[in-house]
Amino acid sequence: MENANEKNTNGENPNPDLEQIVFNLxxxxxxxxxxxxxxxxxxxxxxxxxxxxxxxxxxEEFYEGHKYQNLLVQGQxxxxxxxxxxxxxxxxQLMTALAEKTLIKRxxxxxxxxxxxxxxxx
Length: 122
Known about the structure:
Blueprint: H1 18-44, H2 48-78, H3 85-121
Helix pairs in contact: 1-2, 1-3, 2-3
């Protein structure tokens, strides 16, 4: 990927190298998971507005990571990049974040139902 040190108007590298892509996949995947678990904690405590905010932040982090995943796939199509352990690990981090985020959204829906039922019986 050419011009690895070039920056765009946002201060981001428009052509990150493989190491930068892997780093960003792990970073944003981890951030997405952390925000999803913060949402789950908020929902468990009955703070559903905060849970929704955390889920939105988790989605933003995931989609930021997904941009780097697309760069990786494009780079593999354009060049002969051999996947290595770090690339596989980075991809796994992002996909695990997606799976956990999806499951946590369902768990939060259940917390909402439980919260509503508890309120009705009190």
